[in-house]
Write a structure and sequence with these properties.
Blueprint: H1 3-21, H2 49-73, H3 81-84
Helix pairs in contact: 1-2
Length: 94
């Protein structure tokens, strides 16, 4: 895999992980009993995007490190995915 492909995969993975990490440690205005007039009570209480971006970057670096280790260390690739799971559709030959 070239570095351009690796960076593109990192970028796509980063966005997917961002939406998974975004709700972690988010406090709502209703939980803090401080609802700003004109907002819904479920609105976030204060900014937390910098923290979410940092957590997303760390989680993506870990995931991409695992991916890099599997592809470079074990020599597996995307084409090997169908061969990882055994084929149970055929009956055993006696």
């Amino acid at each position: 895999m070239s570095w351009v492909s690796f960076i593109a995969l990192f970028f796509a993975t980063w966005w997917v992980v961002l939406f998974a990490v975004l709700p972690f440690s988010m406090r709502t205005q209703d939980e803090d009993d401080d609802v700003t007039l004109g907002t819904v009570p479920s609105a976030p209480r204060g900014p937390h995007m910098l923290r979410a971006a940092f957590r997303t970057t760390i989680a993506t670096l870990i995931l991409m490190g695992i991916f890099y280790g599997i592809t470079r260390g074990l020599g597996l690739g995307i084409d090997d995915i169908p061969h990882i799971v055994p084929d149970f559709s055929q009956s055993p030959k006696h």
